[in-house]
Amino acid sequence: MSAITTIRPALVGKLNERQVLRVIQLRGGLSRAEVARESGLSAPTVSKAVASLIKAGLLEETVATELARGRPAPKLRLATTSAQVLGVTIDVVHCEVVSAGLDGALRDDAITVPTPATYPELLDALEGAAKTLMARPGVATLGLGVSLPGLVDYRKGCGVLSPNVAITDNHCPAADLTERLGIECTVLQESHALCLAERHYGLAKGLDDFALLDVGAGVGLGIMSGGRLLKGRSGLAGEIGHFTAVPVGGRRCGCGNTGCLETVASDSALAWLASQKLGRAVNVDEVIDLAKSGAVDLRAELREVAGFVAVGVAAVINLFNPATVFIHTPLFEIDEALFDTVVGRARERALPPSFADCTVVRAKGSKRQGAVAGIIQHLTDSVAPELV
Amino acid sequence: MSAITTIRPALVGKLNERQVLRVIQLRGGLSRAEVARESGLSAPTVSKAVASLIKAGLLEETVATELARGRPAPKLRLATTSAQVLGVTIDVVHCEVVSAGLDGALRDDAITVPTPATYPELLDALEGAAKTLMARPGVATLGLGVSLPGLVDYRKGCGVLSPNVAITDNHCPAADLTERLGIECTVLQESHALCLAERHYGLAKGLDDFALLDVGAGVGLGIMSGGRLLKGRSGLAGEIGHFTAVPVGGRRCGCGNTGCLETVASDSALAWLASQKLGRAVNVDEVIDLAKSGAVDLRAELREVAGFVAVGVAAVINLFNPATVFIHTPLFEIDEALFDTVVGRARERALPPSFADCTVVRAKGSKRQGAVAGIIQHLTDSVAPELV
DNA sequence: GGGGTTTACTAAAGCCTCTTTACAAACAGT
DNA sequence: ACTGTTTGTAAAGAGGCTTTAGTAAACCCC
Questions:
Q1: pLDDT tens column, B361-388
Q2: One Pfam family from the UniProt entry (chains A, B) (predicted)?
Q3: What pTM does this model have?
Q4: B44 strand C contact, CB < 7 Å
Q5: DSSP of B274-298, one letter per residue?
């Protein structure tokens, strides 16, 4: 059963603070009076909540610029000049640390470092980069979000199993960074982060039920359901890549099984098909170049991969009944028409009522945005619990 | 974005009422003082909440029986002698209406009617049966839950698509029964109902993340995630049966596609395999009899079906990271050992960390319990929103 | 430039809820 | 009958929200 929250009159105040924050997140640049109208709260309550949020560093006031009829109202917005958050992405070849305002707007001060070989070195590198970005005078750093590949245990805040970037396995970067930096740190699985990015930056703003399918070297999935990220018991939810898509004679997967969806619907699946065709090993980056340039005719192979991606999309539509499915994949860079192929095939394979409920679009968000969105979400959640 | 709830001091009262209700649902038969200790609320608050809940008919007081040291405390429990709810199940051959206390204990007064051919006749039959059960003097009927097969649109409260029981397609039995009976009525998809039944009656009491896989003529799935039933945008979530499990050469499915999971992992899949073997049509009931009696050796066929059921179980474990997966299927009646086979195969196919997080057990709940659990959940939800 | 109009924000009063403290009620055991 | 124990409720104090009323800061027009 859900955790027992102590319910006191003071809770109402916190809930209203969160409501105010939400309205400003959604519409941005509002005056107190506009927030009151938008949120249904009374003006004094909004004033009080705003005062508390400004004190906490989450909001800031700017001078009125528009000329209106009556008394000019100071505009409120998510803190960007007085506060920031950091986002960390960890990848096979390099890691990145970036800062952003609380509205999520990324600054162009990203620090990129090659991914070290050991975990302590990784921590050192991240600590150094983070401290550089935190050194900005007059700007408070409220938190840091980490996007991790592979499986991530949210209860412990640890990496669990990452076939490609094993460096964080059984380590808890959030706890370790919190200790070193003295700010709130949180981890998020890569695909979950992308999902959150779409909600904060992309077309999913205000959407409560949507899915993000991340087709890269593997297949990742993030689900937003009823306004909450689907996490499961430990945060491992969303692993669609190891569904048995080819029950007999499938290729061996990194997980040890054969015929997993990842082996047929991913960049690496295309690379493997190309390798077969050319009789030599072709890696993921190379196959995309080859296909894009047209140096090798991979249309049949692309079609095959697209068909299996569509199986994944249809499964997501049937299983989660999302309002929108966002697809994030470099494959579409090869051929713009591929997206329509996937959607068409998915339509054939999904249940008609579920498909009719759903739009399929290309994702806009990045992992960096996801890491930032993760910590912003965390800070928002710490203001007050959500009401369902 | 989630609906905007007006947040007032009065909300705190309602939230605490819900808290009190939850504690009594979980432990049952407590005094006010015990509820206060259990919930962390103060005694006066509990008294007030209890008074309101008794007035609403959700709780009732019974005389103290245990002899303790101090002043004897009246025990509180969910109303059963003074109030009831009704549950309706709709099936291919017959429909059932049953009554239960608010604790969910079914009374043995079920009324079974053969499923009529048209929707108006169905409504008439249900209305008649419900009114009979509502006629009990001194007992208030607080609501009625309907368990519907196929796809159910929760936003409209309508059946959408049910291949086997098309009678409710595009009809809204909840709204229609509310009008005829004058009580709160609600619909729930069959597998979702089973999922809720498991939480109210079975081993899932107090569990926030679990899944129920219903392997019958088709494959249904109910997901409880973070204490909420996974519904998706319109309530269509959970359709796992049409995942493409056999990409080439699969059998045709009722949905129009080929190779769906349902065609290989269900009662009807076994029936089809048996038909092939015997060279004559065998239906679902018959194949279970044949297999159980040992009249025909179907061990190889059972093994094949079990293998695909395991693919479904593994997919559920990977996708939802549940603490428990409940499997509801008549197949286990054929051979007790089949359950272990499925679990073993699922272990092979699921990701080890997700599998390690999860227990697989046989489901205990019934559809009737599910329908009742559905309306009880609805009544609980109408007391106050939930805090996350 | 001054009054009127419009809009924004804040202080005060009244109501609701929760908690803590204090008190009355009911029974067992001596 | 009295004491000890436990239960349940009434009263007082604190925090929050809303409505009402009042102050502040601009624009518009003569």
A1: 999 899 999 999 999 999 999 998 888 8
A2: HTH_24
A3: 0.90
A4: yes
A5: HHHHHTS---HHHHHHHHHHTSS--
